[in-house]
Amino acid sequence: MSWPRFLDKAPPADHGVQIYRELDELTASVGRFLDAGFQAGEPAIVIAAADHRQAFTRELERRGRKIDELEADGLLTWRDASEMLATFMDGETPSAERFEEVVDQVVDEVSRRFPDRTIRAFGEMVDILVQRGQRDAAIALEELWNGVLATRPLALLCGYELDVFDLETQATTLPEIVRTHTHPRPVADTARLAAAVHESLTEVLGAEAAAWIYVRVAEEVPRTALPRAQAVLMWLSRHRPGTARRVLQGARSRYASAT
Fold first, then answer.
1. Residue-wise over 32-66: b if at least 16 C-beta within 10 A, else e?
2. pTM, whole model, 2 decimals?
3. Where among 150, 168, 186 does a domain terminate?
4. In angstroms, rounded to a whole number, what is the distance separating the alpha carbons of residues 211 and 248?
5. Distance from C-alpha of 162 to C-alpha of 112, rounded to nearest angstrom
6. Which CATH number covers residue 147?
7. N or C: which end of the chain has fewer CB within 10 A?
8. How many angstroms separate the CA atoms of 235 and 31, rounded?
9. Are 42 and 167 contained in the same domain?
10. Is 48 helix (H, G, I), strand (E, B) or coil?
């Protein structure tokens, strides 16, 4: 399933993630995801950082949605990401028992009002953890969310503010994020990323060696919803970090300039 189709259709158990650098990139995905659900009569739960709620509100209003009416009809439920996170963290680890109590309560309340509908949820508690340096806790939380997705009529979109042109991010953070999601979106414009990575890879290694890298990635990385350019960057960062650093530097400048 393509990223646009995930945003528009979002069947139960699907778990997407938008990696972004600018808030408007995330806002566009969240707005489309929620608005498509409202068009289908599907309710939404938004667990947002306090400073992002206003941006999401403006995007929904730009799409013609009246927030007060959505809330009054029970179609839109807001939760503060930091406040909810605090209810189930046990030190630096999410408590599975408390997470289930807190999240199940919210999901089940919405599900009772809309018993035959898929619930669309957006959350960025995981990003708060990553920004605090608690990457393992964020991945543990993603796994807990996947448990909820297996038992509830829920489709989930997450957001992470990360630099995909950073070597450490590619080597340590993104692989686990990709693993725990069915639909990873590493940048807003994946076609631009593909061109930037290809040009940089070819410049650094030459056409023949670049082609060999593509073959190795095709052989070793299963074909999924992950854009191929992102798979190449993760493979390089794991197996050839020196080369990866140079490719990432070139891809960064090319991606930024191709606007």
1. bbbbbbbeeebbbbbbbbeebeebbbebbeeeebe
2. 0.96
3. 186
4. 17
5. 36
6. 3.40.50.300
7. C
8. 32
9. yes
10. strand
- What confidence score (pLDDT) does residue 1 get? 72
Into how many domains does the chain fold? 2
- The strand pairing partners of 102, in sequence order, are none
Dihedral of CA 245/241/179/96: which sign?
negative
Alpha helices, DSSP H, located in 20-133: 23-39, 50-62, 67-72, 81-88, 96-113, 125-131
- State residue 225's pLDDT score: 80
Domain that holds residue 137: 3-186
Euclidean distance between CA atoms 44 and 23, whole angstroms = 20
- The DSSP-derived string for 177-238 is HHHT-SEEE-SS-HHHHHHHHHHHHHHHH-HHHHHHHHHHHHHHS---SS-HHHHHHHHHHH
Token representation of residue 5: 């189709």
Closest CA to 182 of 226, 217, 220: 226
Residue 27 half-sphere exposure toward CB, CA atoms < 13 A: 16
Task: Over range 114-137, report the average pLDDT.
Answer: 97
Alpha-carbon gap, residue 52 to 255, rounded angstroms: 25
228-254 pLDDT, tens digit each? 999 999 999 999 999 999 999 999 999
The amino acid at residue 80 is D
Q: Which two tokens stand for residue 3?
A: 């990223």
Instruction: Please give the mean pLDDT across all residues of the chain.
Output: 96
Same domain, 99 and 179: yes
Q: What is the amino acid identity at position 234?
A: M
